[in-house]
Specification:
It contains three helices and no strands. The protein has helices spanning 5-12, 19-30, 45-114. It is elongated, with a radius of gyration of 38 Å.
């Protein structure tokens, strides 16, 4: 059984998320001296896991800090919005009082002028 052309291409091409790793491996392989020790040492799997674990811990701390900042800003925004709503309610009441006073004065002036 011979694989199709698309299967062959899929098997021979590197996935986009693995291109960096392939480039590192190519550089490592091309940097070896003939008969001597390699120029670079390959990291042990446990070392890589430890580094990944450390990065994940820092990432989690960073995300937690960002989430706390977001929640604090959200809370401050809500408090500011509530304060503005209270001020608007006070202004609405003041406008109502001024309107009623104006209507009362107008009505009194109308009755005075009708005499």
């Amino acid at each position: 059984i011979i694989p199709s052309v698309s299967d062959t291409k899929a098997m021979l091409t590197t996935e986009s998320d693995k291109l960096d790793e392939e480039e590192e491996l190519y550089q490592f392989a091309s940097s070896r001296k003939v008969g001597d020790q390699p120029k670079e040492m390959i990291m042990k799997k446990t070392d890589r896991r430890a580094i990944v674990h450390e990065i994940e811990m820092h990432e989690d701390a960073l995300i937690g800090g960002m989430q706390q900042n977001f929640e604090l800003e959200l809370k401050e925004g809500r408090q500011h919005e509530e304060q503005i709503m209270r001020e608007m309610k006070t202004l609405h009441i003041e406008l109502l009082v001024v309107t009623l006073v104006c209507i009362g004065i107008s009505f009194a002036a109308l009755l005075y002028l009708k005499k």
